[in-house]
C-alpha cells in the first residue's frame, strides 16, 4: 500500500513535466520538418548554391552531438533575441532534428519516380509547381515510416534541453531522486511516461501511414 | 556591442566544437564555461553594464542553480525550490527589494548562462576557484567548505589525509572542484592513474557506484556527503578542508556592480544571525 | 468554314532541320516535319532511331541542339519562350502512363486545370468528369492508379492530357507497356480522338492502327526520316529500298 501511495505521489509530481516534454518535442519536430523539407528539396532540386547550403547544414549538424548544437544555438540565439529557455531549447533541438529530417526527405524525394516530374512538366507545371503538388505529396508519404522513427528519437532527445534549463520529465524525475535518494521510483515513472508517449506516437503515425500509404 | 559579442561567441563556440571533435573528452558535457574564456572581455561588459539597475528595473533577480544538491538546493514535493542556498538568495532578494526567480539548469551550464545574462547570479554551493574566478566574479564566502571522502559501508580503507586516496578508484561529479582536486593532486602527481578516476553527471550516480563497489571512493562536498552516505549506506572516511580552497560564494558576471551590494548583505547576515538561522533551518552544522 | 480553311493552311507543328545528340550518340540528324491541323501522323521505325526524342522535342521535354520548331505561329525554340506555356498547349501520353500515384483518376485529370490553368475547383471537377467520360472511365473517377488496369491507366492519362485542351496530342508508344489484350481499349480511344479531329503525333509499333487511323505514316531510321506518305502507299508500295538507305 505504501508502495502504491509512493508511486502515485511520484507520478503526480513527475507528470507535470509531461507537457514540457510534449511541447519541446512538437516544436522541435515542426521546426525540423520545415528545415528538413527546405534543405531536402534544396539538395535534390536546388541549384548548386542551394544544394550546397542544404548539404552543409545536414552534414555539419549531423556530425556534431545534439547536445552541442543545443548549447551553441542557445547561446547564439540568446545573444540575439531574448527567448525563454523553452523556446531556445526547442528551436535548437528542431535545428538539430532538421538535419536528420533533411536526409529523410532527400531519400524520399529521390525515390519518387522520374516519370512523375516529366508528366507534371508535360501538363505545363513549372518545376516548383511540380515539386509542390506532385513530388512532395508523394515524398511525404514515402517518408512517413522514417519520419516516425525520427519523431521517437526527438522525443527522447527532448531530455537534452535541460542543458539550457528546461525542466522536462527526466529532470523532474531527478528532482524526486535527489530529494528521496530513491532512483527506482523516479526513473520507473519517467520510463513509463516515455514508454506511453512513444507508444502513442508510433500508434498515431502508424494510422497515418495506413491512411496515406502510396499505392504503387 | 551585442551583435559583436554574439559573433565572438559563435566563433569561440565553433572553435570549441571543432576542438571537442578532435579531442573527445569521455563523459564530458560540452564545457561551455571554458569556451568563453577568450571572449570574456567582450562579453562581460554587455552582461554586467549596470546590472543593479537592470535587476531593480525588472523587479526580479534571476538566480541560477542546479537543484539536485540537497540540503543546498532541491525541489520539494510541491515543486518548490528549497534548501540553504534558496533561503539565502530569497533573503538577499528581500533586502534588495526584488523578487527572486530560480532557474534550474545543469551545474555545467551555469557559468555560461550568467555570462550570457540568461541568469543574474549563480547560487549553487559553488566554490570560488581561481579558474572560475577568471570567468565570473564571486561574492565573499557565505559558507566555508569541507570535503568528504566516502567509501562503501564495510570499507576497510583508512584515509588519514587526502593523499591516502592515491591509487584507489575514485569518483566525483563532473565540473566540480573535487574532480579538479583529484586531477591536480592525485592524477597529476602520479599517485592515481587516469583510468582509475570516474566522472559523474551527478553526485548520486557516484554514490550508487560506491555502494555497488564499482569504485572504492568518492570525493564530495561535506554536507551532501552526510545525507548521501546515510541514504546509500556509505561510510564517511575523512572530513577535511585540505582539499578545499575558499568557501561557497555567489557568482556574478565579471564587473557586476551588484557584487558590492550582495557582499554587504552577506556580511550583514553573518553579523545579525540570519545565516545561522538559515543554516539551522536546513539541518546544517 | 472559311476559318477552318484558313487554319488548315498553317501547320500546327513545324519542325525544321532538328539535330539532337546525347553525349556522342547522334539521335536526330536533321529532321524536318510538319503537322497540319487535324492530321494524324504515325512515326514508325526500328527502336532507337529517334522517334521518341523527336516527339519530346515538340513540347521541349527534349531541347534540340540545332533546328527550329514552331507551334502554330510561335517559334518555341526561340530564346525567352516560356516552356511551361508551350507544354500547356501540347498534350502528351507516355509509354509508362506516369499517372500521379497519390491522386485519384479524377484528381489526376483535375490537377492541371486547377494548378496550371487556375480553373475554379467546381468547373475543373465537372470538366474532369467529362474527360473521363470521353475515355469511358467516369465510373472509375475515385480509383487510385494502383486500382486501375494498365489500359485504364493509359486512358486516364489521355483524359489528363485532354483536360488541358491541347492543340496537339503526342503519344509516345502508348500501348507498348500494355498486355496485348489491353491495347485495344487504348487504341479505340485514340481512334475516337482522331475521328473527332484532334491533331495527333503518334510513335507506335501498332501497324494496324497506323494503317487505319493515320493520315500520314513517317518511317524513321538512324536519325533520319527515310520515307513518309499515306499508309496505303507506305505499306503496300514503299518507294525506298530500306536496306539501301540504312547502309
Q: What's the story with the biggest beta sheet of chain A?
A: none
What is the N-to-C succession of helices and strands of chain B?
A: HHHHEEEHEHEHEEEHEHEHEEHH
In round numbers, the mean pLDDT of chain A is 92
Which percent band covers the strand fraction of chain B?
15-25%
Q: Strand order across the biggest sheet of chain B?
A: 9-8-10-7-11
How much helix, percentage-wise, in residues of chain B?
40-55%
Estimate the global geometry of chain B from the Cα principal axes. Answer: globular
Q: SS-based structural class of chain B?
A: alpha/beta
List keywords for this structure.
heterotrimer; B: 285 residues; alpha/beta; D-Maltodextrin-Binding Protein, domain 2; 5-stranded mixed beta sheet; 3-stranded parallel beta sheet; 12 helices; 12 strands; C: 247 residues; 6-stranded mixed beta sheet; 10 strands; 38% helix; globular; disordered C terminus
Provide an overview of this structure.
The complex is a heterotrimer of chains A (about 220), B (about 280) and C (about 250). Chain A is about 85% helix and about 0% strand. Chain A has helices at about 1-15, 20-45, 50-65, 65-80, 85-110, 115-120, 125-155, 170-180, 185-210. In chain A, α2 (about 20-45) runs antiparallel to α3 and α6 (about 115-120) runs antiparallel to α7 (about 125-155). The longest helix of chain A has about 30 residues, at about 125-155. The mean pLDDT of chain A is about 90. With about 280 residues, chain B is an alpha/beta fold. Chain B has 2 domains: about 50-145 and about 245-280, D-Maltodextrin-Binding Protein, domain 2; about 145-240, D-Maltodextrin-Binding Protein, domain 2 (3-Layer(aba) Sandwich). Chain B has helices at about 1-20, 30-35, 40-50, 50-60, 85-95, 105-115, 130-135, 175-185, 205-210, 220-230, 260-270, 275-280, and strands at about 60-65, 75, 80, 100-105, 120, 135-140, 145-150, 170-175, 195-200, 215-220, 235-240, 250-255. In chain B, the strands form 4 sheets. Chain B has a 5-stranded mixed sheet, with helices on both faces. A 3-stranded parallel sheet of chain B has the order 4-1-5, sandwiched between helices. In chain C, α4 (about 105-115) packs across α5 (about 120-135) and α5 packs across α6. Chains in contact: A-B, A-C. The interface of A and C includes residues 113, 116, 134, 137 and 141 of A.
